[in-house]
Amino acid sequence: MEFPGVQPVIADSEFLGYASVLADGDAAYLLWLIGALSLVAFVAGLRKEARSSVWYRMLQAVALLALPVLLLLGMVVSMIPPA
Asked: Are 41 and 59 within 8 A, CB to CB?
């Protein structure tokens, strides 16, 4: 028996559960670091003359690619069988 409207609530709760796991332990420091780096890149991009510099482009590229690289690394590590 299914109740209407319950499935989306369960899906949201499952997503929040996964997010809370990422916010616990060592991963939390990495996520906060990526967030801070993205914020620094955003604030630096508010200055028009900074947008044309090489250091800003490098900072923006690192900030944009940090989360996908972290997720890919986590996926690879999770596939390694336990010893």
From this structure: yes
